[in-house]
Structure formats: structure tokens, C-alpha cells
Amino acid sequence: MSQQQRFIYLPLLGTIILCLLVGVYLAASKRFSKPTPSNKVTKHKAKTPPDEALKYWTADRMRDAKAAPLPKVNTLDREKQDPRPSRSQDA
Predict the structure, then answer these.
(1) Cα-flanking dihedrals φ and ψ of residue 82, to 5°?
(2) 91 three-class SS
(3) pLDDT at 72 (0 to 100)
(4) Which segments in the chain show pLDDT lower than 50?
(5) Nearest CA to 53 among 42, 44, 61, 41?
(6) CA distances (Å), 68 to each of 23, 38, 48, 65, in order?
(7) Beta strands in 1-91 (DSSP E)
(8) DSSP element (H, E) containing 27
(9) Exposed/middle/buried for 83, CB within 10 Å: 0-12, 13-18, 19+?
């Protein structure tokens, strides 16, 4: 093997080994990384017996009850979510 060919193979071999090491590092870091904690579920014990709650919520109180505030969610328009034409338009 000539001296010039050896100089060509050494950087190529080094590049291949470096790429393999980076790939192994990325795979290992992905595999052993801790997952991000999700929102925890909080439990509360109700001190009021269920029978008392049923007695409290009469028909009049249910009629006058106000809805709980719901979170605001920004959703896309229906046309933007599904770009495919519906079957009614194809006919």
C-alpha cells in the first residue's frame, strides 16, 4: 500500500469511528434520560357523605347552578385540520 493511500484511509476511518461514537452517545442518552414529569393527579378525600350531597342538590339548586369555568383551548378551523375533501363534495 502506498503512503498516499494510507493518508486517505486514516481520516475516513477516523470519521467513521467518530460518527459511530456520536450515534452510540445519542442512543444511550435518549435511552437513559429521565422522562419529563407530567401533571400530577391530586386526590382529595370528601368528608361529606354522598347521601348529604344528594339531599343538597335539589331540582331548584340544580336549575340555579352556574357552570364551572373551562380552560380556553385554541383550535384550528375545521377546514385547516382536514384538508381532504369530504365525501359529500365528491358526489
Answers:
(1) -125, 95
(2) coil
(3) 81
(4) 90-91
(5) 61
(6) 50, 24, 20, 9
(7) none
(8) helix 3-32
(9) exposed
> What are all long-range contacts of 47-52, with beta carbons under 8 Å and residues at least 24 apart?
none
pLDDT at 33 (0 to 100):
76
What pLDDT score was predicted for residue 14?
86
What pLDDT shows up at residue 32? Answer: 78
Distance separating alpha carbons of residues 31 and 52, to the nearest angstrom: 51
- From the list 37, 35, 56, 36, the residue with the least C-alpha distance to 46 is 56
CA 40 to each of CA 17, 34, 46, 48, 84: distance values in angstroms, whole numbers, following the listed order: 43, 16, 19, 24, 38
What pLDDT, on the 0 to 100 scale, is given for residue 59?
93
pLDDT tens for residues 32-55? Answer: 777 666 677 788 888 888 899 899
12-32 burial: b if 16+ Cβ within 10 Å, else e: eeeeeeeeeeeeeeeeeeeee
